[in-house]
Amino acid sequence: MLKDLKISRPGLWFPTIWIYLVPFTLEDRFWEQIPFWIGFVFVTFPLNYLVYGLNDCNDISADRINDRKGNFLFGAQASQDHLDNVPKKIAIITLPFMVYFIMVGGWKMLVILIIMVLVNIVYNYPPFRIKERPPFEILIQAGYVGTVLLSIYLNDLKMIPWQTFLYLTLFAFQAHIAGELMDIEPDKIAGKKTTATLIGRKYTKYLMIGFLVIETYLLYFWFEDLLLSGMLGVFALWMLIDVCFVFKDKPYSLSQMKLFGLGMNASAIVTMIWVLYSGKLLVPIVM
Predict the structure, then answer these.
(1) Distance (Å, whole) CA 76 – CA 95
(2) Does some domain include residue 287?
(3) Is residue 131 part of a domain?
C-alpha cells in the first residue's frame, strides 16, 4: 500500500487540490458539507493514483533510471509486477467515488469523468501516447481543469469565469514544464521525447518564464490580485536569474529538486488559503 501511495505522488497533490478549491469562498461554509469532503478526498490519493498510476505503467524505463523517483515527493520506482496490477486497483479505488459523483451531479458529471479518464488514456497509451508528442504533452495538461468542473457540479457552485479557466490552464502548463525540466537526463537516456528534451534546458526555462509572465500579468491586471501576481512575478524573476547567471544549462541536484518540491508545496498551502479568503479569482475586472 505504501508503494501505491508513492505512485500517487503526495508531493504533487497540490495542483488537483488547489484547482478543486478555486470555486469556493469562505462564505460557502463548504467544510460543513459532506459532498465537499468526499470530493476533497477524491482529488488527493484516488485521482492522483489514476493519473500517475497510468503514467507509471507506461514509463517504466525512464522511471527506473530517474534518481528523483522512489519517494513520496516525486513518485515510486515500482516493478513491472507491481505495476501490472495498478489499473485494476485504480478501477476498484475510483469507481465508488465516480458512482457517487454521478448520483449527485447527473449526466454532466458523467461527461466530465469520462473526459478525465479519456484524457489520461490518450496521454499514456498507443496509438495516441500524447506524452511523447511535443508540444501536445504540454497542451493536454488542460485536462486538469476538469477538476474544477467536478468541484462545481459536485458542490452545486456557480460556474467560474472564463478568465479563471484560462489562468488555471496556464498554471497546469507551467507545473508540467517544471517536471519536464527535472527529468531531461533520464528521459533522454530512456529515449523519451518531450518538449524539454527537444529544445533543451535553457529554452525550456525560457518557455516556463514566458508562462509565468503571462500568469503574472493576468493575475495583476485581470484579477487585481497583488499577492498571487507578486509571488509568481518573484518566481519568474528567479527563473530568469537561474537561466542567465546561476544554473544556466546545468541540471539541478537531487537535493535541490527536493527543496524545490517542498517550496512548491509550502507556496501552494499559502496561496490556497489566500484564494479561499480573497475570492479574487472568481471576480475578474476584465470582461
Answers:
(1) 23
(2) no
(3) yes
Q: Is pLDDT of 1 > 90?
A: no
Q: Which pLDDT score is estimated for 61?
A: 86
The sign of the torsion formed by the CA atoms of 213, 232, 174, 118 equals negative
The CATH number of the domain holding residue 214 is 1.10.600
Residue 173: inside a domain: yes
* The total number of structural domains that make up the chain: 1
Binning pLDDT at 50, 70 and 90, where does residue 272 land? very high
Please give the Cα distance from 133 to 153 (Å, whole number): 32
Q: Predicted confidence band at 2 (pLDDT cuts at 50, 70, 90)?
A: confident
Give the domain range for residue 143: 2-282
Q: What is the pLDDT of residues 156-197, one digit of tens each?
A: 999 999 999 999 999 999 999 999 999 999 999 999 999 999
pLDDT at 211 > cutoff 90:
yes
